[in-house]
Amino acid sequence: MNATQSIIAQADPGAGYRAQQAEIDAAVARALNSGWYILGKEGEAFEQEFAQWLGTTRAVGCANGTDALALILRGMGIGEGCTVATVSHTAVATVAAIEMAGATPLLLDIDPDTFTMDPDELAAVLEDPPPGLPPIRAAIAVHIYGQACDLDPMLAACQRAGVALIEDCAQAHGAMLGGRRVGTMGNAAAFSLYPTKNLGALGDGGILATDDFELADRIGAIRQYGWRERYVSSLVGVNSRLDEIQAAILRVKLQVLDANNARRREIAAAYDAALEGGPLSPPVRRADSEHVFHQYVLRTGARAELMARLRADGVGTGIHYPVPVHEQSAYAGRTALGPAGCAETSRAAQEVVSLPMYPELTDEQVGRVCAGLRNLAG
Ligand SMILES: *Cc1c(COP(=O)(O)O)cnc(C)c1O
């Protein structure tokens, strides 16, 4: 690395702001000048534009992606006395949301190639639930790193068991499976709008989507103290609102989401090519799907060495995630595992490493990452 070159960051949310600075500044000024800051015209317009972009009939904004998941569970009446199945190889937020709703998390193992839930395990626990747990009422499918889960067998298993399937799309805005966008196939879907996500606010934000009008209506009330009429709670609710400034910013950023996802795929293809002939395999893409590369993740048994060698070439890396949820001290004894355990999850946590990935990476920066990857072969 040349001493004047800085390390290429693994993520850079500021670059997303600078890429649309004039439009974003104008949107913020519009929201500020409106004199209305919470649940107003910008939020309503963003909900409509997001639902239209996604292809659902309804979308409901809220404070963050964790709340979006918890609000869906609450809206479905899933809480105390219920189990929700998901994975341990995820942002801790997925499991935190299940606990926020009052339900018990049941964590299943992943497919080692795609890092997504093993559908056979889901089918097995739905058919023959582990003893000592409350009834399983929902499964949360996490489309990790920007790639769809193997959703068809999961949906079939949930339908057979009469259980809801909720999609955690926090890393997969725009990902496709069988020609359909993720977030349109389960009963409801949660999206995080955290600054580094494929669609990121400049602060916290979340949105959930569904075709179930009554569910959306209940959640719309629950997110604001259960109000349908101002100051009168008809449901037990919480406070989880999306503010007008973030909604105005998100309307600007939604316009470039598809183009940004295409740029992420272009960067991924360049990394794939740079890995050819080397010791590492590019990420596995599921057949009949379109990955949106929230993260470009490699696997290696020599992670510390790989990270150090890339760093010496000016390339920053990250680990998503270093410790599976069930192995984190806060969750010791609080989560149940499936009968097969979580061996693949534990192995993945030791081996995954994420390369720099955001649409504003310049061709020159991508070239420097590729040079670092080619150096690994030597
Ligand atoms: C980011 C993320 C969330 C939570 O979103 P927040 O907006 O940070 O609350 C949930 N699930 C997954 C898989 C995530 O990556």
From TrEMBL:
Family statement drawn from the similarity comment of this UniProt entry: Belongs to the DegT/DnrJ/EryC1 family.
Keywords recorded for this protein, A-Z: Aminotransferase, Pyridoxal phosphate, Transferase
Enzyme Commission code: 2.6.1.-
Native source species: Paeniroseomonas aquatica
Highest taxon of source: Bacteria
UniProt xrefs under Gene3D superfamilies: Aspartate Aminotransferase, domain 1, Type I PLP-dependent aspartate aminotransferase-like (Major domain)
One annotated GO molecular function: transaminase activity
SUPFAM superfamilies with a match to the protein in the record: PLP-dependent transferases
Pfam families: DegT_DnrJ_EryC1
Protein's recorded name: DegT/DnrJ/EryC1/StrS family aminotransferase
